[in-house]
Amino acid sequence: MAGLELLFNCVSNSITCSQDALICFVHWEIVKSGYKCLGIGDEPANGEKKSELLPAGWNGSKELYTLRYRSNDDKSNFLLKAFTVDSTLIFNLMDTKTEKVTDLTVNVNDYIDEANLQTFESVFKNTDELIIKLKSSLLPPEKEERQEKTERNRESEKASNSRDLNNDPLLIPHRAPPTRHPPDWPNPMAPFAAGGADLDPFGGRVGGMIVDPLHAGFPRSGFDPSSGIPGVLPPGAVPPGARFDPFGPVGRHRPGPDPDHMPPPGYDDMFM
Predict the structure, then answer these.
(1) Which of 47, 92, 249, 261 places its Cα 20 to 30 Å from the Cα of 101?
(2) What confidence tens digit (pLDDT) does each residue in 25-50 have?
(3) CB neighbours of 107 closer than 8 A, spacing ≥ 6?
(4) CATH code for the domain of 13
């Protein structure tokens, strides 16, 4: 707590109660956080200068302490108020720019030895615990802590921006047209590349010039040309599994009437 002893010795003659000693300690912690005191009261006065010392009249009221602070870089101002309620001090620290307020209630007797108000070595107790409370609940973060927090935020933003958008379940996908895969053209240097579907009909290639309505060579139910066609082909005329394009109606009974059976009335045209 370098500097606290010097501050305490400067104001020890004016410390008359435990609240004064606690205000002195809190003031020094604010100074360590990168701020200096401007003066007392809610409104600024003419000729104010930033100082690490407590201003004149800082403990004029034992019921309400009011101190104003400004950061070393002049970018922010704070208003500190401390209310005495029985044996406690209620601290309020407001950022005058953002109007953000932090508060802390401290039991004075837990951290100040009232019997040794004039002795620096004995007046403060449980200081480590008090510092933790002040930093976690009341005081603004020190410059180093702010820089570390800013760097962590930047790293978090970078990680968020560099994430794989395709694997984000919460991201609404872009309305882009679906990707069209190029056709699977055969290698032009491969055998049967040109006309391969006709030269190798069982190679699994689509297309070709041979019409095969019965899909010869593939399992199917129903008509089997290898068993023969009554009145047209005897059994065995078509080898099993051979490609076969029927040259007539399949089966004995042709389904439905054929337009050639009965021409429209009033037409005597053999080509109808």
Answers:
(1) 47
(2) 999 999 998 999 999 999 888 888 99
(3) 87, 88
(4) 3.40.1000.30
